[in-house]
Specification:
The structure is a homodimer. Chain A is built from 8 helices and 14 strands. Chain A is α/β, with parallel strands linked by helices. The first copy, chain A, folds into 2 domains: 185 residues, Rossmann fold, CATH 3.40.50.10440; 131 residues, Hypothetical Protein Tm841, Chain: A,domain 3 (2-Layer Sandwich). Chain A has a 6-stranded mixed beta sheet, sandwiched between helices. In chain A, strand 5, helix 3 and strand 6 form a beta-alpha-beta unit. Chains A and B meet through helix 1, helix 6, helix 7, strand 11 and strand 14 of A and helix 1, helix 6, helix 7, strand 11 and strand 14 of B.
């Protein structure tokens, strides 16, 4: 196992310490509670936006804490759900008396722990709404999930909903937009290589030199099928077609296209995938009017990519375009 | 070789096509001339800022074309200098009658070809200044270089000088700031793995499972020494110490700290390196007042990192902070 780490058991803590030192203008890291919190939280009368999940998917979620996106993130151990205590501490830290939205990727552990944290927070008198993302069209159930997995849409949703929350909108409206964004987006991923969880020291699965896995999850969970390596154009077709069909995208519609790297794939390759995706959508007269290309929801050093398409309407586009300032996404400020 | 590509010979073109489609609001890609040009170039009475070099280092340089950074980039084949014709076409495209600055990383091919392009441009009556970056403290000469290699400082320099050029400053002033930034910055890198140039199909070098290369170049050129894998803290020490000594950084000074990923290293590890770097500098009472952490000057899918420290003064800080809007760096707009 070749990694830039110190002790295996310190990976998450050391990385959080670096993040706290690097972005002290935006956020603070509480290593004891294992939470990342917007510097000036709680913002009075603003809905607090909280997400969390296993580490190993950086910059998600800690890299999205700041202005106009998340108010807090609770990172678990690598590929492991955070615990309810973390979620409760983060919820309290961002409660500005307007309620807190929990954004949860659909994995069994995350869902259960966030449910428990919400119950505890409500005992404190904090109003909670929860939204579960489940945008992965690859498989219906998986190793860690009942129902579809939550993947790339989560990043887009956190940005869009964070933009609305910044305007002082009430919790119900923020939660409704979150549910709409989730329903408007679908994703699918693939891997060329596995990744190695530091505590395990071995790759999460084996893939031979001429194989790829289509429909992979962000923890290396098996996907739809294992195939011989194909061209970027063919791979893009395999990922985009199920998304377009599931979303029932029609000619004339506008989308945000998100080409995400899994962590070990260089940008030069992601732009090749984007080129293919643009050709496929243009051929169907579906217009890409916004895009995001890079490593935003990763699986450690896995090589591969995912595609997310998000059907746009005026409201979603407005809050996607709204100013944001976080370690990983920044514009308008 | 596992890559998300179509034909090996189309890698650069396909990626540039994707980049042109994705960022049409900022730039245009001329596939015939193999150049990436700011959308509204030439900007009249503004110094044109041009850089270029082999592909495989994305987002450098094409990802830095836009507002407040580069006016154009000329990407060569992977790890291969662009040719003088590309550089000349890009120079003409960004000539707004205030002259053009060529930013050249110190590799023999790049330097010779940019010299020839500058001569040709001057025959056209275009005033040219050239600055060569040579910030890599690892080795004095290398496989592709007489003198030190140009690496991480190039990214910072392009941002800072681009900020000044946007104010309408004259060519001599822009070139002088470029030379100052180069003299204020030093870098050193390391690799955990090699990378594979698509046309070669084989890794650029061999490194066994328990080895790393300290002082590596961005094309996989040999570094200072090959060692057994060490901890992130030890690696950071090995990279930072020669930089601090070479820059003669003193207690009380302020720096920009840039922790760069080589392409295949996940962000969670880069923050661990940043944490160590912050401890080392804090221990010497050298203050990090700006930072940049991520994949900005890469070697395809190589795993590893580099550290760059840039001594700050008011002028450099002002233009680092100035608004920028490119595919890869964006703030203030």
């Amino acid at each position: 196992m070749k990694k830039l780490i110190n002790k295996v058991e310190d990976v998450v803590n050391d990385s959080l310490a670096g993040m706290g030192a690097a972005h002290a203008n935006l956020l603070r890291v509480d290593l004891e509670s294992q939470i990342v919190v917007r510097k000036n939280a709680p913002v009075q009368s603003k809905v607090g936006i909280l997400s969390g999940g296993g580490s190993g998917h950086e910059p998600m979620h800690g890299g999205y804490v700041g202005i106009g996106m998340l108010d807090a993130a609770c990172p678990g151990a690598i590929f492991t759900s955070p615990v309810p205590d973390q979620m409760l501490a983060a919820t309290r830290a961002v409660n500005g008396q307007a309620g807190v939205l929990h954004i949860i990727k659909n994995y069994t552990g995350d869902v259960l722990n966030f449910e428990m944290a919400a119950e505890l927070a409500e005992l404190d008198g904090i109003k909670i709404e929860s939204v579960v993302t489940n945008d992965d069209v690859a498989v219906q159930d998986s190793l860690y999930t009942a129902g579809r997995r939550g993947v790339g849409v989560t990043v887009l949703l956190e940005k869009i909903v964070g933009g609305l929350a910044e305007t002082g909108a009430p919790l119900e409206q923020v939660a409704a937009l979150a549910r709409k964004v989730n329903s408007h987006g679908r994703s699918m991923g693939m891997a060329l290589t596995a990744c190695t969880v530091p505590a395990a020291g071995e790759p999460t699965f084996d893939l031979s030199e001429d194989e790829m896995e289509i429909g992979i999850g962000i923890h290396g969970e098996p996907g739809r099928r294992r195939l011989k390596l194909a061209s970027a154009a063919q791979i893009t077709e395999m990922l985009a077609t199920p998304i377009i069909e599931d979303l029932e995208l029609k000619a004339g519609e506008q989308v945000l296209a998100f080409v995400n790297g899994m962590g070990g794939t260089p940008l030069i390759e992601l732009y090749i995938i984007y080129d293919s995706l643009n050709r496929i959508l243009t051929g169907k007269n579906i217009r890409i009017v916004r895009n995001l290309i890079g490593n935003y929801i990763t699986s450690l050093e896995m090589a591969g990519c995912s595609i997310t398409l998000l059907r746009l309407d005026d409201e979603i586009t407005r809050y996607w375009d709204a100013p944001v300032y976080t370690p990983a996404l920044r514009w308008g400020m």
